[in-house]
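Hey, I was hoping to borrow your eyes for a little while. For a while now I've been wondering how a particular protein folds. The fold is given in discrete form, as structure tokens running alongside the sequence. Could you read through the record and tell me how the tokens relate to the sequence? Take your time with it, there's no hurry, and the full record follows here:
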Amino acid sequence: MSVKLGIAPIAWSNDDMPELGGDTPLEQCLSEASEAGFSGIESGGKFPKKSDELIPMLEKHNLRLCSGWYGANLRKNSVKDEIKLIQEQLILFKNCEAPCIVFAEVSGSIAGDQSRALSTRPQMDKDGWKDFCKKISEISKYLEDQGMPLAYHHHMGTVIETQNDTERLLESTSEHVKLILDTGHMLFANGNSLETYDKFKDRIIHIHCKDMRKNILDKSLNDDLSFRQAFLEGAFTVPGDGCIDYKPFFDLLKKNDYSGWLVVEAEQDPSKANPLEYAKIGFNYLTKTCAESNLQIIK
């Protein structure tokens, strides 16, 4: 089986903090992602919402849309309401032939609140879990029937954060609920990406290759920083510049015939971490490590 290499635009422009790369043109992001060697890119706030505008831009730079974030409020909204809200993105992704929608529950999230320590993230009781899992199963079935599978994103500061949360979600939902495995978020939550992949390999359809600087990771956990404080301190970086050894993980992907996207994603301040420079570091490291694990990369 083979993999494809993509990148997220957050290194160039942070949608949650416009002061970080807010003035960087989308054209620069696309051209530099392509220059670094990637064949795909996830969507971002600056991307056109209509495929007749976006597709020509991607084609100009030999890029494909390899998914993108959707923040849901299923704990508050009905499934019917959330289906209405996702329509514009669903149509765009279908037209662009994206492989999936990266889907996360953001109700009550503290990820964007610099004053909220990660230990104060939202939690669900037994009834909350039951209701949430039922809704996730329903909307996943709908999206799969539309040809656009839901890849659930476990994320720091949200109700699905830890390895236990992530595995409980998959154990409590239908087979229509798929997962994006994010190596950085899993490590930040003291989880083990290899264990989760080995247990749920049939449900994992997308992978974010986010790395972490161990000294800042340790500080963030010891001092119970907020998510935003942690990334402003420089907790995240690209593969090859952090503490994660991707060789054992890629060996596992090879063993289990993973076929999909490996997406470099690292929230960093572009004034401190030049996006093109770090995109090249990530691409070169993934290319080298995939070769060592006999994972074929295709464009």
About this structure: The two ends are 13 Å apart (CA to CA). The chain has one domain: 2-297. The longest strand covers residues 2-7.
